[in-house]
Amino acid sequence: MSVPLTLLGLLEREPSHGYDLKRDYDTFFNRGKPLPFGQVYSTLGRLARDGKIVIGEVEPGVGPERKRYVITELGATEVDAWLTEPVEAEPNLQTILFTKVVLSLMLGRPAEEYLDMQRAAHLKRMQELTAIKRGGSLVDALLADHGLFHLEADLHWIDTTIARLDALRKVVRR
């Protein structure tokens, strides 16, 4: 997740205070892992330094002054370029799970047991995502679907790999 570009996108929607940006980011983009306030303000500082945002209105607050941040043309151009650029197709072909399977076979360890444990972890996470999907908003449901579809693909890979373990064992133990 690109925090700077996401904050720029939120600012293109409307000028905002740091607190409001954090709230919107946490609401829509960062389920289960809130964006720290320090990261919000350090990111805003870098964006201002780089000319992508400016500080608009400054209002007195209970604590420090409340600054309203405004996106610049440079920042809007960067958001537009980012939004129109396709996301790199995932996953790449070197995954941790694949590496663990190959190493366990090379070392004579029980790869099938490891894959069974991974399947159980995936199924548990799928149950959690299904609960989120059932009890959450449309945003929650769409994010949960994204995770569920990836986990389903992983489960298919796990089953296919288990079926081919003997052949893979021969290849990696040469």
Automatic annotation (TrEMBL):
It comes from the Bacteria. SUPFAM superfamilies: Winged helix' DNA-binding domain. Residues 111-166 form the Transcription regulator PadR C-terminal domain. Residues 7-79 form the Transcription regulator PadR N-terminal domain. It holds the Pfam family PadR. This is PadR family transcriptional regulator.
